[in-house]
Amino acid sequence: MKEKHGMTLIVRTITRISVWLIFLYGFYIIFHGHLTPGGGFAGGVILALALLNYMLAYGREKTENWININLLHDMESASAILFLIVGILGIAISGSFLANWLSGGKLFALFSSGTIPILNIIIGIKVCAGLFFVVWTLSIFHIEEEAEE
Question: Where exactly are the structural domains of the chain?
Answer without folding.
Answer: 9-148
